[in-house]
UniProtKB/TrEMBL annotation:
<feature type="domain" description="MD-2-related lipid-recognition">
    <location>
        <begin position="29"/>
        <end position="153"/>
    </location>
</feature>
<keyword id="KW-0732">Signal</keyword>
<dbReference type="GO" id="GO:0015918">
    <property type="term" value="P:sterol transport"/>
</dbReference>
<dbReference type="InterPro" id="IPR039670">
    <property type="entry name" value="NPC2-like"/>
</dbReference>
<feature type="signal peptide">
    <location>
        <begin position="1"/>
        <end position="24"/>
    </location>
</feature>
<dbReference type="GO" id="GO:0032934">
    <property type="term" value="F:sterol binding"/>
</dbReference>
<dbReference type="GO" id="GO:0005576">
    <property type="term" value="C:extracellular region"/>
</dbReference>
<protein>
    <submittedName>
        <fullName>Niemann Pick type C</fullName>
    </submittedName>
</protein>
<dbReference type="Pfam" id="PF02221">
    <property type="entry name" value="E1_DerP2_DerF2"/>
</dbReference>
<dbReference type="InterPro" id="IPR003172">
    <property type="entry name" value="ML_dom"/>
</dbReference>
<comment type="similarity">
    <text>Belongs to the NPC2 family.</text>
</comment>
<dbReference type="InterPro" id="IPR014756">
    <property type="entry name" value="Ig_E-set"/>
</dbReference>
<keyword id="KW-0964">Secreted</keyword>
Amino acid sequence: MLLRIPRKMLRCAIALLLLGVATAKLVKFTPCLNAQELCTVSDVDITPCQSPSRCRLEKNQTTNLSFDFTPKFSSATLKTGVYFVNSDTEMGFSDLGPDACVYTSCPTVADTKQTFTYSLYIGKRIPSGLFPIRWRVWDETDNSKMCCFNINIKIAK
Ligand SMILES: *[C@@H]1O[C@H](CO)[C@@H](O)[C@H](O)[C@H]1NC(C)=O
Ligand SMILES: *[C@@H]1O[C@H](CO)[C@@H](O)[C@H](O)[C@H]1NC(C)=O
């Protein structure tokens, strides 16, 4: 028997599918080598994002980013920064930070998962291209207590 799906329902399903593509996306990330023992990062989410391994960010637009992290340390206040990574050098990027408590709750409690959310505006002066990005969140009084991960983003022309 041929399954007959009402056209209206089909249209609705396709619309939902497209909506799913345009909304929140968990993206691929890699933890930084030296920061894995003291902090676990999970569920890095970029909206909008079409490709989870390489989100495309448009200039003159705001992109929402969020991630969960579980520090193994307690901390009264946190600092944060986002950087372009070019072999060994890191270049500050975006107006994020340095006060991380604006984007996540402080103080942090050891072994408790919390969420960091940030709306990133991509200005017109940021060059187009594919960029490795490193995100860091650390204890203000001891920067060896750090959460850190890498993602790749593409900044559209
Ligand atoms: C940048 O975005 C704003 C708001 O969407 C818009 O009004 C403005 O025209 C845009 N500027 C350029 C140069 O595209
Ligand atoms: C980003 O988050 C803000 C605040 O929650 C919201 O108003 C806006 O619509 C979001 N933008 C996108 C592209 O999801």
